[in-house]
Amino acid sequence: MSEVRNQDEVIYQVHDLSVNLRRRGQERVILKSLSFDVRKEECLSIVGPSGTGKTTLLRALAGLIPYAGSVRYLGETLDGPASDVVLVFQDYVNALLRWRTVQKNVALGIEGRIPRDQCQERIDEAIETVGLQNYRDSYPWELSGGMQQRVQIARALAMKPKVLLFDEPFGSLDAMTREGLQDELLRVRSVFQATCVFITHDIDEAVYLGDRLMLLSGSPASLSFEVDIHLGETRNQISTKESGEFLSLRHQVHEQMRKAHGASQSTN
Amino acid sequence: MTQQTSNTQAGSTRNSYRKSHGGKGVAPLFGLLPLAVLLLIWQIFGNPHSVFFPQPNRWLTAINSLQQQGTLWTSILATASTFVQSIIVATLIGTTLGLALGSINWGGKALDPLLDFLRNLPAAALVPAAAIVLGTNTKMALVIVVFSSVWPILLSTRSAIMNLSPVLSSSITNLRLSGPRRTSVMIGSALPGILLGVRVAAPLALIVTLLAEFITNLSGVGALILSAQQNFNSAEVYALLLLAGVLALVVNSIVSAIEASVLRRHGPVTT
Amino acid sequence: MAPPNRQIRLIGWIAPTILVVLWQLSIDIGLIRFRYFPTPVAVARALYTIALSGALYKNTAHTVLVALIAWAIASVLGVAVGLVVGLSVPLWKGVMASIDVLRSLPIIALVPVGVIIFGFTLKLEIVIGAYAAIWPTLVNTVTGVRQTRIELLDVGKMLRMSALERLRKLIFPSSLPVIMVGLRLGLGLSLVLTVVSEIVGTPHGIGNALISAEQALHPGQMFAYILVVGLVGYLLNGVFLYAARIFSPSERSREISR
Questions:
Q1: pLDDT recorded at residue A247
Q2: CB B229 within 8 A of CB C112
Q3: Is A5 in contact with A34 (CB distance < 8 Å)?
Q4: CB-based burial label for B203 (10 Å; 0-12, 13-18, 19+)
Q5: How many DSSP H helices and E strands does chain A contain?
Q6: Which chain A residues have a beta carbon less than 8 Å from that of C158?
């Protein structure tokens, strides 16, 4: 009985996942032997230094690249792009279609698949959720970076996905915009009950947004640390980040990261 | 809508996978295989008496007989001499005018339509005009080749000067550089742009040289091509096509080599 | 929008006017002395004559029509072949070097090959014009397709688009600006090479009229036809850019006119 309920609450079951990539003719091990679960409706933050293979991990979870080991999505082995999973890229400039207006970019994932009036309804809803109703007919290149990233999020939301995979979505935005979007994301999550995997190299961001945090480090990368985050449903840029819980989590993660970094340096 | 385009250079710095569908790089050499196979099939299965499509071995015979007549090397030399002189003159004029036009800021609006019109005048149409005015001689060929190949160099130099980083131009002012030293700093920083112009101009200059020789029967490879066509000597026509291809290849590799050696100090070019 | 634009146009007329006046004066006062170098006035008079006789219209119409036909053929072939070569990495590796060799052959040396095969016919004009125009179109299409960002292809995979949908919604539109640059270059080349094959011997069009004027020792008419070729090229380019601007938002047409 409890076994069945557990099955229902797990979105991803990853076991012994490894990924090799070929670059300039050389096979390189990027990820080695990762095992973890992603639970229903949680936000799992994965932190790691730049270049550790965080993006590769997300691409594997999205079913975009071949892998070794086992990834079960909703109980079934993942082979090929997973349904109801949307990836939000850091590089919004290239992920958005520059020749389409905001509205048409948001439509990309659902147009021609659901009835037209329903489609329009979802587009409007997604655009309003990210607060871009005044920019429906603008082109992405007319908008600021933060707004472009909102368009990408709206495009994902319009598809009503079960899982949102965020690949350092705010990595190339300035600090102010980034904080704004972090709060926006928390708000969106409280409305759309989606499961999130959020990847970043920013520890503060990972702690602030996550329900659970994992550390990815080393080369080839593996998971070295995991912690639950209990900061409550509503979080605030100032008070949450000053709370003892936040500071102690931040401290722990920093320490673990330094430790992992030292370990990987001594083995090299 | 106030924050336009300032943020469009989003950080795409991460390198964990290929950036584009095709990736980077030069086409591998084994891509020449289809062409080689085509020539081989042509050689083996071609009609030995074909007027339109003579077999490749007959091209080589044709070029050999040209060499024995002694016209081959003198023609190549004549073409090479016109080409080299023109590209040097074009580089000098193009760089000078480019520097001058790039330094005056009212030049753009006033001169763009005229420059646009002049540089798009087809060289082929100018050749007969130059021939009637100047006569059929090497000087005429020089004038035409310089006139048509100067534009890429001029425009590229001008835009390099106009796009000099503001930091650099203010440090030029700040260091109180003037006269020849100022010019030499400007040329130095515009060098990648100048060389880019030369790279575009060189193949163009070769084609126009051949064109001028071809249309006016002025001695050179172009004239060889013309006489082969007029004598309906198809094997020779193909042989000279091959020769022209080789010349183009030589020109390209020389220009690339010069560019590479000059630009080594400049680091990667971002044009 | 209108006032600054008009200002640019007015300023743009100053330099050509000065040039023409200098040209006229330096011949009048004997600064330039060539037997067959016409004055601007003589060129204008010749232009008026050929315009009245109908020769101007007939020759220009012929050349422009042939150039456009050649360009249309080259565009269809170039984009089609370019898409196929650009989409398949193995195919690109297998044939691209051959394409590079073929396109770097000096086109003028190819004209005689065409003359031998087709003679001085309409076919020659079209084939030569199309041959010249196909390379920039093809190569730019290949480049454009291969430049498609991996993020965009990932978006397609994630949204489970079919191959055709990916081509139509992502790859083709994202490479369109680069393809348009190729088409624009091709348009200019097909006009020039049409004129070349007329100069070389095809008995029609502007190129032929130019050579006839040379042989008849009518330098005024010759220069008039040169002016016309220049203007036709300028106008075709302008029309192309205008059309591109109508069919796509402003940022993209700026890329095309680069």
A1: 86
A2: yes
A3: no
A4: middle
A5: 10, 10
A6: 62, 64, 81, 85-87
Q: What is the DSSP string of C71-107?
A: HHHHHHHHHHHHHHHHH-HHHHHHHHHHHHHHHHS-H
Cβ of B217 under 8 Å from any chain C Cβ?
Answer: no
Neighbours of B, requiring at least 3 CB pairs below 8 Å, are A, C
CA distance A133 to A126: 9
- Alpha-carbon distance of A57 to A60, in angstroms, equals 5
Q: What pLDDT digit, counting tens, does each position of A41-78 carry?
A: 889 999 988 778 888 899 899 988 888 888 999 888 88
Residue A64 to residue C159, Cβ atoms within 8 A? no
The pTM score is 0.83
User: Rounded mean pLDDT of C107-115?
Assistant: 91
How many residues are listed for chain A in this entry?
Answer: 268
Percent of chain A with pLDDT over 70: 94
Burial class, C217, CB count within 10 angstroms (exposed 0-12 / middle 13-18 / buried 19+): exposed
Superfamily name with CATH number, domain C40-256 = MetI-like (1.10.3720.10)
Cβ burial C143-158 (10 Å sphere, 16+ → b, else e)? bbbbbbbbbbbbbbbb
For residue C5, give the DSSP letter: H
| CATH number attached to the domain at B55-265 | 1.10.3720.10
Q: What is the mean pLDDT of chain A?
A: 85
Q: Which of A29, A56, A143, A177 to mutate to test the interface with B (most CBs of B within 10 A)?
A: A143
Nearest to C73 by CA among C193, C170, C164: C193
Answer whether A105's CB lies under 8 Å from A155's CB. yes
**8 A C-beta contact, residue C130 and residue C72:** no
Give the C-alpha separation, C32 to A140, whole Å: 57
Rounded to the nearest angstrom, the gap between the alpha carbon of residue C235 and the centroid of all alpha carbons in its chain is 10
Bridge partners of A39, per DSSP, are A10
- Hey, what are C200's tokens? 């070389």
Task: Write down the domain spans for chain C.
Answer: 40-256
Are residues A64 and C174, on separate chains, in Cβ contact within 8 Å? no
If you measure CA to CA, which chain B residue comes closest to C107? Answer: B207
Amino acid code (one letter) for A245: E
C191 in Cβ contact with C233 (< 8 Å): yes
Phi, psi for A72 (deg, rounded to 5): -105, 125
Q: Is the domain defined by A2-84+161-267 classed in CATH 3.60.15.10? A: no
Chain B hits for C223, CB-CB cut-off 8 Å, are 129
Q: Where are the domains of chain B?
A: 55-265
pLDDT at B161 (0 to 100): 85
Shortest CA gap B32–chain A (Å): 22
Q: What are phi and psi of C183, to 5 degrees?
A: -65, -40
Q: How far apart are CA B53 and CA A12, in angstroms?
A: 65
Chain A: nearest CA to B12, how far in angstroms?
Answer: 6
Question: Which ipTM did the prediction report?
Answer: 0.86
CA distance C157 to chain A (A): 6
